[in-house]
Design a protein that fits this description.
The chain is mainly α. About 85% of the residues lie in helices and about 0% in strands. The chain contains eleven helices and no strands. It has helices at about 5-40, 45-50, 50-65, 75-100, 105-125, 130-155, 160-175, 180-220, 230-250, 255-260, 260-315.
């Protein structure tokens, strides 16, 4: 290669390297403007009114980026800002869901809160976000506490014990995430107490249902030839089911719908046995009536013969 060509090639490489080195600086200035535009365009008055900590975090992040030199703003800075913007968007979703009257929406809000918690941990790893994760965490604490109160209130007004226990556990977890350990312990105690009583009562109800089925089977195919045995068994079956029904109704438990078919079976067998019993009683009364009539006729004949005998004696005298 000629010396002139070598010099030209060297100059070309130097120029390319110079342009490559200068691009990040120029690009960083543009990136800084873009990031500031994104932060400034973040306008959520309703959310910031409810969670002032988020507004302070936004102002703090804006101040940090504005105070950075263009060369200091990098794509690492962009990642930090993006995480914060996503957190604010997630908070907006949580806030909307938490205004609903449906427990399912509040559960969905809590699921989003878990992702926000992870985002806060990720945000805390960036130097740019110094102090901002603490503000966001405070806002998240308040959200968890409000959800703990919501599920505590709805648990109190819920008649179905199984649902109430679930709400009490959610309330306990929410209070715990919100930094209120005493309320979390209180709700966990109530949940465990209700759960213990519920399990005990459901075991009793199951025993009554098993007894009802057993007595129903015995009524259909009585093990004893005693005349009243089937009828006594169906009465026991009905009483056992009614005891189970009272327990299910006490807890407003949906399991009652799954066992209500026994009632129809008990009624069918009861009506059949009642009909069979009435037939036997009718036959018995018919036989008794026949015997009574026969005895009555015999008594009348005997009385007539007695009267004839007395009349004959009177004529002889």
């Amino acid at each position: 290669m000629k010396p002139r060509s070598l010099i030209a090639l060297t100059l070309t490489i130097i120029i390319i390297n110079s342009l490559t080195l200068s691009t990040p600086a120029a690009g960083s200035d543009a990136l800084k403007r873009d990031l500031l535009d994104e932060i400034l365009s973040l306008d959520k008055p309703g959310l910031f009114d409810d969670y002032g900590e988020l507004y302070l975090a936004k102002a703090g992040l804006q101040s940090v980026v504005q105070g950075m030199e263009g060369t200091e703003v990098s794509y690492t800075t962009k990642d930090c800002v993006t995480i914060f913007l996503n957190i604010v968007d997630e908070f907006e979703k949580m806030r909307t869901l938490s205004e609903s009257q449906l427990p399912a929406d509040h559960k969905a809000a809590l699921e989003i809160a878990d992702t926000v918690n992870n985002s806060i941990n990720a945000l805390s790893k960036y130097d740019t976000a110094d102090g901002i994760p603490v503000l966001v965490e405070r806002a998240l604490y308040r959200f968890y506490r409000s959800e703990g109160k919501y599920f505590e209130d709805i648990a109190t007004s819920t008649e179905e014990t199984k649902l109430r226990i679930g709400y009490e556990y959610i309330s306990s977890d929410s209070y715990g995430e919100g930094g209120k350990p005493s309320d979390a312990s209180r709700m966990k105690f109530e949940a465990r107490r209700d759960e213990r009583v519920y399990k005990r009562d459901m075991e009793r109800a199951s025993d009554y249902i098993r007894a009802a089925r057993l007595h129903l089977a015995n009524a259909r195919d009585p093990p004893s030839g005693f005349f009243g045995a089937p009828f006594m068994e169906i009465i026991k079956s009905r009483d056992s089911f009614e005891n189970a029904e009272k327990i299910y109704e006490q807890h407003s438990d949906k399991e009652l719908e799954n066992v209500k078919g026994i009632v129809t079976e008990i009624k069918i067998v009861y009506q059949r046995l009642m009909f069979d019993t009435l037939k036997v009683v009718a036959i018995y009364l018919l036989i008794l009536s026949c015997i009574t009539v026969i005895l009555w006729l015999d008594f009348n004949r005997w009385a007539k013969e007695l009267d004839d005998t007395r009349l004959g004696e009177e004529l002889i005298v």
